[in-house]
Amino acid sequence: MHLIYLLITILLLPVPAFSGTVKGTAIFSGKIGQLEPYKTGKYKKACGSNIPNKSILLDNKRVRNAVISLYGQNLKKKGGEYRLDQRKCQYEPHVITMPVDSELKIHMSDPINHNIHTYSFENDPINIMFLPGQDAYSQEMEEAEIIKVECDLHSWMKAWVVVTPNSYSTVSGSDGSFKIGDIPPGKYKLTAWHETFGSLTKKITIGNEEMNIDFDFLEVPKEEARR
User: Fold this and answer.
1) Distance separating the N- and C-terminal Cα atoms of the chain
2) 216 by DSSP, 3-state: which?
3) Pairing between strand 38-39 and 50-51?
4) What b/e sequence results for 118-154 when a residue is b if at least 16 CB atoms lie within 10 Å of its CB, and e otherwise?
5) Which residues are registered as beta bridge partners of 186?
6) Confidence band (pLDDT; 50, 70, 90) for 225?
7) What are phi and psi of 124, to 5 degrees?
8) Is residue 1 helix, strand or coil?
9) What is the rounded average pLDDT of the residues 78-99?
């Protein structure tokens, strides 16, 4: 009788949910010159004299702001709210990744006017003038795509919003590192995208362990990159 109770207890125990993790570093092992900052000209009082060019940010060949995304079956999405601010005549952050059915909330923190303009094709484009002190503007992103963001009043203001079909994406940090966790076991494609260096994709198989995958954007064919 005790054996029967023991077997029932074991059967009723929750089955552990196995998942894996992929982590790594995005690098560019080639040579590239340092980018000059943008001159703000007549806007220097509000913006400062120089604005850094964030289209390539390297630290010892490690690439910041690369978007790492996972593609495959059974990957869930969880919508949320993602903030894009207009601060010191720059977009912060410079790169955002967000799953479909999420809300992009655009804030205004500058003392001068801006005109945000998104170059999107799958989602409704945004073309709005922002005045100092204006309330935030929100828009839901319903389709996956890479969206370029500019300001029609200040040519140096650029950002990117990468809308993905699921929640398994991230942006590499200042040291080029990235990590995506809680991945169901299975076969997937892992893609690294950068606004200047282009895109790389690797096929991976996730089990119940941590996997290390690195990307070197020097491997992107020159005709596919903007460098």
Assistant:
1) 73
2) strand
3) antiparallel
4) bebeebeebeeebeeeeeeeebebeebebbebbbebb
5) 206
6) confident
7) -60, 130
8) coil
9) 97
The answer to whether residue 72 scores a pLDDT higher than 50 is: yes
**Beta-bridge mates of residue 35:** none
**Residue 21, class by beta-carbon neighbours within 10 Å (0-12 exposed, 13-18 middle, 19+ buried)?**
middle
The SS3 call for residue 179 is: strand
Cα distance between residue 173 and residue 168, in whole Å: 16
> Is 102 strand, coil or helix?
strand
Which of these CATH numbers, 3.40.50.20, 2.60.40.420, 3.30.428.10, 2.40.50.100, describes 17-173+210-224? 2.60.40.420
What is d(CA 221, CA 71) in angstroms, rounded to the nearest whole number?
22
Residues 151, 73: Cα–Cα separation, whole Å: 37
pLDDT at position 7 is: 45
Q: For residues 52 and 68, what is the distance between their CA atoms, to the nearest angstrom?
A: 23
Residue type, 93: P
Tokens at 26, concatenated: 């995005």
Please report which confidence band the pLDDT of residue 10 belongs to, taking 50, 70 and 90 as the band edges: very low
Q: Tell me how far apart the alpha carbons of residues 160 and 156 are, in angstroms, rounded to a whole number.
A: 13
From CA 86, how far away is CA 93, in angstroms rounded?
9
d(CA 119, CA 121): 7
Contact call for residues 190 and 213 (beta carbons, < 8 A): yes
What gap in Å lies between CA 190 and CA 68, rounded to an integer?
7
